[in-house]
Write a structure and sequence with these properties.
This protein has 83 residues and is an alpha+beta fold. Helix content is 34%, strand content 19%.
Length: 83
């Protein structure tokens, strides 16, 4: 059995997203901690993702982004793609 692959969650820290992403980023850190995934999941800042109209934005990959993220939606998204 091999070790599970590490996942990186990127949160947009562009000009508009950074105004709205504090609650979302805090929620992500809490979810990683609650699910004991600190060794497998990293949360990092990303430069502007070009989706300013949909701030705040969090992504795993370009095709797995959550836009207009709220704490409630982040929890569902996390369960689907991370946990």
């Amino acid at each position: 059995m091999g070790a599970k692959k590490e996942k990186v969650i990127l949160f947009c820290d562009g000009k508009k997203c950074c105004k709205y992403n504090e609650e979302v980023v805090e929620c992500l850190h809490d979810l990683v901690k609650e699910n004991d995934l600190k060794k497998r999941v990293k949360i990092k800042k990303a430069k502007c993702q070009g989706m300013c109209k949909h701030a705040p934005v969090v992504c795993i990959k370009k095709d797995q982004c959550l836009t207009k993220a709220t704490e409630k939606e982040v929890k569902k998204w996390f369960e689907k793609h991370i946990a």
